[in-house]
């Protein structure tokens, strides 16, 4: 999944001209995310544009802190299971070892920054605002030296090329005019990521990271001075370690308060996404939009097929019904009349036994008869966007 940050849909875009840059955008370009966020947080009476900027920068600051930790510890960008750990960053030749405490700290730190972003959005409320930001002005101080270096721009880190298909970029030097609807979009995104962090923390992976690292160290000590007689470890060793770490973490007794919090965040994400579309549909302008409603165009040149909003809302409606246990998730062993109640699963999560889950025994406490999720809305959405469904899902949230 690539839903990690506002800038995840921007790549290889040139810097906007000075005439297009707002004072705040220029400040971010020159001083960075942390310094600008600190100034806004200290304002005694921040107005609506500043509060939205504060929320957005706290969101991005959480990502920046995670990238800085990765740089310090040399974690590579092949952790596809965790969004922020898969983003490409410059290499640190003097990196220290990555520990379980680092991973736990990364997740709790991100959660704290997302809470801070929502606090600013709560203070903003429903007040109207307009804020223009040049996307190329956003950058992460990955190596923590206070200056923008090569590889630290949002486009460099996002690593996502938007070429061809419905996502072909037709606009250079994009400047986005964020408005009231986008505050609801940002709120929805913070809830999504908070759902992810709470699930991860419910099965705290820190101890498993340390256990697997210690075992790997002992394994490599057995090699001695003789190189292996095959390339199996080179090709699959790191991946096997990652999968082992995840399975060991999931085998723990989970924190029910965390999974319930994740459930609440996912439902709040859907509520805020609906609020975004209601606000966007009520707009009468068409001016450098972030996520365009019907009749609007994106500042990024993203082409939205007619009916995108309605189809996406249908997808979220099915997801909401599943989260509330009103529709059941099918399992290959449970037949055509029964499925898994996700509401019960989040309320009382199990230790994860992968074999038992696949076989069916592991999900039996949550299995019941009732209407099942059909995924028909998702299939219709896929047809609408002609193969770009996951990219649109990332963007639309």
Write the layout of secondary structure elements.
Blueprint: H1 23-31, H2 33-41, H3 48-73, H4 100-124, E1 130-134, H5 154-158, E2 175-179, H6 180-202, H7 206-221, H8 232-250, H9 256-282, H10 308-323, E3 338-340, H11 342-347, H12 354-359, E4 367-369, H13 376-385, H14 389-396
Antiparallel strand pairs: 1-2, 3-4
Helix pairs in contact: 1-2, 2-3, 3-4, 4-6, 4-7, 6-9, 7-8, 9-10, 10-13
Describe this structure in words.
By secondary structure, the protein is mainly alpha-helical. 52% of the residues lie in helices and 4% in strands. The protein is built from 14 helices and four strands. The strands form two sheets. It has a two-stranded antiparallel ribbon. A two-stranded antiparallel sheet has the order 3-4. The longest helix is centred in the C-terminal third of the chain and has 27 residues, at 256-282. The protein starts with 22 loop residues before the first helix and ends with a helix.
Kindly provide the radius of gyration, computed on alpha-carbon positions and rounded to a whole number of angstroms: 22 Å
The tally of helices reads 14
| Rounded average pLDDT | 86
Unreliable segments (pLDDT under 50, ≥5 consecutive)? Answer: 1-19, 160-171
Biggest sheet statistics: 2 strands, antiparallel
Strand content: under 5%
> How many beta-strand segments?
4
Q: Strands of the largest sheet, in order across it? A: 1-2
Overall 3D form = globular
**Structure classification:** mainly alpha
Which H/E pattern describes the elements?
HHHHEHEHHHHHEHHEHH
Q: Distance between the terminal alpha carbons, to the nearest Å?
A: 11 Å
* Helix percentage range: 40-55%
């Amino acid at each position: 999944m690539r839903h990690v940050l506002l800038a995840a849909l921007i790549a290889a875009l040139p810097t906007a001209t000075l005439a297009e840059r707002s004072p705040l955008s220029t400040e971010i370009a020159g001083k960075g995310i942390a310094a600008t966020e600190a100034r806004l947080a200290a304002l005694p009476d921040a107005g609506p544009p500043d509060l939205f900027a504060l929320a957005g920068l706290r969101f991005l600051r959480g990502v920046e802190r995670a990238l800085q930790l990765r740089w310090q510890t040399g974690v590579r960008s092949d952790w596809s299971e965790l969004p922020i750990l898969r983003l490409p960053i410059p290499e640190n030749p003097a990196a220290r070892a990555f520990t379980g405490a680092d991973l736990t700290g990364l997740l709790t730190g991100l959660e704290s920054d997302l809470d801070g972003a929502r606090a600013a959005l709560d203070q903003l409320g429903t007040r109207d605002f307009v804020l223009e930001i040049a996307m190329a002005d956003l950058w992460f101080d990955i190596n923590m030296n206070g200056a923008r270096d090569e590889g630290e721009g949002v486009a460099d880190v996002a690593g996502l090329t938007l070429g061809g298909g419905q996502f072909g970029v037709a606009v250079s030097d994009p400047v986005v005019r964020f408005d009231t609807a986008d505050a609801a979009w940002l709120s929805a995104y913070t809830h999504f990521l908070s759902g992810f962090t709470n699930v991860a923390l419910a099965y705290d992976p820190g101890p498993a990271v340390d256990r697997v690292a210690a075992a790997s160290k002992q394994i490599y000590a057995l090699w001695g001075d003789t190189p292996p007689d095959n390339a199996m470890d080179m090709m699959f060793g790191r991946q096997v370690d990652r999968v082992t770490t995840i399975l060991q973490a999931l085998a723990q007794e989970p924190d029910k308060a965390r999974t319930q919090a994740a459930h609440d965040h996912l439902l709040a994400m859907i509520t805020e996404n609906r609020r975004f579309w209601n606000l966007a549909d009520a707009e009468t302008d068409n001016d450098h939009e972030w996520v365009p409603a019907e009749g609007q165009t994106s500042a990024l040149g993203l082409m939205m097929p007619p009916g995108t909003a309605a189809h996406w809302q249908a997808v979220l409606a099915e997801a909401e019904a599943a989260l509330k246990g009103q529709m059941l998730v099918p399992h290959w062993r449970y037949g055509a009349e029964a499925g898994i109640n996700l509401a019960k699963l989040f309320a009382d999560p199990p230790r994860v036994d992968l074999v038992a889950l696949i076989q069916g025994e592991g999900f039996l406490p949550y299995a019941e008869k009732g209407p099942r999720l059909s995924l028909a809305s998702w299939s219709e959405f896929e047809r609408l966007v002609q193969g770009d469904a996951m990219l649109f899902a990332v963007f639309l949230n």
